[in-house]
């Protein structure tokens, strides 16, 4: 018997459609044309890809964050005889996240730029499929409050958080202690430089950092995986999603990326979610939840995998994980400052203006130089985000090492 699948048509907006998560989301949607209807697609500057996607999925709206790109897209769509309406800028992104005909919003814009559109989806009471971890890192309390206030549903797309969600009981929102959870085990592949020495790390190139052993992802998250800041951001993300603190989360290096995370209960039981490292699994899970539907991901071949390894993270070689943990403990706007400094440092590394090993140094010094505030107002968060960006830019320009 096939599993029961949701009743269609379900209206979907894909924010960040042209990125790695966006493309995987459209792959899943294309497998279920009877259930899902693409209402809006958004991108930034990749006009060609967004045009192709619009011609294939015929959304009502397409948005380019970039105004020039929006004009080029509109002209190309008109020439192709497509009816898709083109919007631009942050206003356009927020608008398509909250349209009445939209049920689910895939929040897959990378970085701080994804915060406002994801918030707009929460405020419109949508099912928010959250890939953009930076939104929770920057404004976790506000985001969670808005989800509750507007009756939105928040489903994690990040593979680890989706795994944890799958291993928790449905009533986990009552509190992890209440439902008998002792701790969360957050797995990390360790990235492409898992076994590299500090000396070797000093000379790595953007191309090497973006060549992840198990996952194909956008460039920013690939560098985050290589520094392990990705795991730091995920630790913060997990604290907000599951209403817990860093003390209850153990990061576990697991190079094969087959176990996507685990939950340990007070009776000693440990539940894990396993699968091939393919983002279509968490995407399909979150879209169909509480049902299941095919994602295109094949069976896990345990005989082929043969063994699973585990190790403790090395905070000496990967200080970003420590910095993220400290920022979460410090609270207020500290995680937003950490995130902003990281975005600047990663971009500088990708532009070959900063050595790989200076990324944590830029972040640590930015945290020292930027005053942290209460994070109860978005304006305060955005102001500290801006201050942190300029402090980090200055550190990069000064040639921090
Ligand atoms: P990507 O770089 O491949 O795609 C990013 C998308 O965001 C693109 O569509 C791009 O056009 C859009 N974008 C970039 N800057 C923008 C701006 N200023 N305004 C509007 N749109 C903008 O990134 P990705 O790998 O798909 O990751 C997207 C998000 O999902 C990130 O937050 C990442 O941490 C998270 N995530 C990704 C993966 C993965 O496997 N790729 C896994 C877990 C979580
Ligand atoms: Mg992840």
What does the secondary structure layout of this molecule look like, with pairings?
Blueprint: E1 10-15, H1 20-30, E2 36-43, H2 47-57, E3 61-64, H3 67-79, E4 85-88, H4 89-97, E5 104-107, H5 115-123, E6 127-130, H6 133-149, E7 153-156, H7 159-167, E8 181-188, H8 198-201, H9 206-209, H10 219-227, H11 229-241, E9 249-253, E10 259-265, E11 270-274, H12 280-288, H13 302-305, H14 319-330, H15 334-350, H16 359-369, H17 378-398
Parallel strand pairs: 1-2, 1-5, 2-3, 3-4, 5-6, 6-7, 8-9
Antiparallel strand pairs: 8-10, 10-11
Nicotinamide-adenine-dinucleotide is lined by residues 16-22, 43-44, 46, 65, 108-110, 113, 131-134, 158, 215, 217-218, 220-221, 279.
Give structural notes.
The protein folds into 3 domains: 148 residues, NAD(P)-binding Rossmann-like Domain (Rossmann fold, 3-Layer(aba) Sandwich), CATH 3.40.50.720; 109 residues, no CATH class; 71 residues, Rna Polymerase Sigma Factor, Chain: A. Helix 2 links the parallel strand 2 and strand 3. It has 401 residues and is an alpha/beta fold. The protein has a 7-stranded parallel β-sheet, sandwiched between helices. The chain has a 4-stranded mixed β-sheet with strand order 9-8-10-11, covered by helices on one side.
């Amino acid at each position: 018997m096939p599993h029961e699948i949701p009743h269609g048509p379900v209206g979907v907006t894909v924010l960040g459609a042209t990125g790695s998560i966006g493309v995987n989301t459209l792959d899943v949607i294309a497998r279920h044309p009877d259930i899902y209807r693409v209402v809006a697609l958004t991108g930034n500057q990749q006009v060609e890809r967004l045009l192709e996607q619009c011609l294939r999925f015929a959304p009502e709206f397409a948005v380019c964050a970039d105004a020039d790109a929006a004009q080029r897209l509109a002209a190309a769509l008109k020439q192709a005889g497509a009816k898709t309406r083109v919007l631009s800028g942050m206003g356009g992104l927020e608008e398509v996240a909250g349209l009445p005909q939209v049920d689910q919003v895939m929040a897959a814009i990378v970085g701080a730029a994804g915060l406002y559109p994801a918030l707009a989806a929460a405020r419109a009471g949508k099912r928010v499929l959250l890939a953009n971890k930076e939104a929770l890192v920057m404004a976790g309390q506000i985001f969670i409050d808005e989800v509750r206030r507007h009756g939105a549903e928040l489903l994690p797309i990040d593979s680890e958080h989706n795994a944890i969600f799958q291993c928790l009981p449905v009533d986990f929102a009552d509190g992890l202690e209440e439902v008998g959870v002792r701790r969360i085990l957050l797995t990390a592949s360790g990235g492409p430089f898992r076994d590299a020495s500090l000396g070797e790390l000093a000379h790595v190139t953007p191309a090497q950092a973006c060549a992840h052993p198990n996952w194909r992802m956008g460039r920013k998250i690939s560098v985050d995986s290589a520094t392990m800041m990705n795991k730091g951001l995920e630790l913060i993300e997990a604290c907000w999603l599951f209403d817990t603190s860093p003390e209850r989360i153990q990061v576990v290096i697991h190079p094969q990326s087959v176990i996507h995370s685990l939950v340990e209960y007070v009776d000693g039981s440990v539940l894990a979610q396993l699968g091939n490292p393919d983002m279509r699994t968490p995407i399909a899970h979150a879209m169909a939840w509480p049902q299941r539907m095919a994602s295109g991901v094949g069976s896990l071949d345990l005989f082929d995998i043969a063994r699973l390894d585990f190790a403790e993270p090395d905070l000496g070689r990967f200080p970003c994980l420590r910095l993220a943990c400290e920022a979460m403990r410090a609270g207020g706007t500290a995680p937003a400052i950490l995130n902003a400094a990281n975005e600047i440092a990663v971009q500088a590394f990708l532009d070959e203006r900063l050595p790989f090993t200076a990324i944590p140094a830029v972040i640590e010094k930015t945290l020292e130089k930027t005053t942290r505030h209460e994070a109860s107002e978005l304006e305060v968060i955005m102001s500290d985000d801006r201050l942190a960006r300029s402090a980090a830019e200055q550190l990069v320009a000064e040639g921090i090492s």
